[in-house]
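Intended use. Records such as the NAD(P)-dependent oxidoreductase entry shown here are meant for training and evaluating sequence-to-structure methods. They are not intended to support clinical decisions.
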Amino acid sequence: MILITGANGRPGSAVVREFARQGAPVRALVRDPKKADGLRALPGVDVRTGDMLWPETLESALAGVDRVLMISSAGPQMLETQCTFVDAAVRAGVGHIVKFSGKDSIDGFDPERFRSSRSHEQIQRYLVASGTPWTVLRPSQFMQVYFEEVPDIVRSGELRLPLGDTTLAPIDVEDIAKVAYAVLTTPGHEGRTYTMTGPEALTMSDVADRISDAIGKPVRYRDVTPEEKRRDWIEAGYPPARASAFTQLFQERTRLGRSTVDLTAHERFGIEPTTFAEFARRNADTFRGASDYVVTPA
Ligand SMILES: NC(=O)c1ccc[n+]([C@@H]2O[C@H](COP(=O)([O-])OP(=O)(O)OC[C@H]3O[C@@H](n4cnc5c(N)ncnc54)[C@H](OP(=O)(O)O)[C@@H]3O)[C@@H](O)[C@H]2O)c1
């Protein structure tokens, strides 16, 4: 049996949907069963409840599991959550842990300088030291993070970010889900790390143009200061610590400035990379503000 954790979240739900699309049975771990109706409605999906921070809640989810895709939120608890989960999975006899990590597409980015990326590095070291066969998936920024800018796009026709003419190479979560499905269902991936980005390095003006074309309305990129964006994030309800962490990350991206495209995982697994234009067209109603982004549609 294969278990996907973080299954109510953006990447986790996409991987579970990919299993359902392929007709392959899968088990999904969620923390809040009330949010899992969409997952339960998918064919072949066995939803179990548990908290990765509390091993005693994981017995049912881990029973009989050979492989796990380990995902949890990128918050301050990620290190503790995933190290605790690795221990529980090893004790339960899981034979292969695939860690969902990340890698910024920006050239020269040092993961040790930022809390979330540093936590991923620490978790990877912990996982390797556990002695369990492992694989690491390292996608770049998700295209889906631009949904967080929808309120500004709808209100003012602006994409407000503190990035100057920096390029990023965001990837569609659906592409990552296809890579994850291939890694979880075929042999030969132990000890390997798969980095991946989207197919283009884009300035934020490029991103705004693609959203504009998809929704049929003008969308302009507005280069705001890090302090302005930090205020926007706090007004939008982000906890101040999260807003500060993002501000630091965006300042570093702007300082370095350029991204590199890496399609080696797409090529290896025969996955057609989704362009931002295709992604924006597929999600035009969300970018128009006409439909909420549903993480786990039924
Ligand atoms: N955002 C990006 O652009 C990006 C790019 C590359 C990599 N990543 C990495 O991708 C991962 C997921 O990203 P995200 O934060 O954006 O995903 P997300 O949508 O917040 O999904 C994370 C899921 O993990 C679940 N979870 C958290 N703590 C848990 C616990 N103790 N027990 C059980 N489940 C738990 C959450 O459950 P609830 O639904 O109950 O909260 C949520 O459904 C992170 O490691 C992040 O660093 C992100």
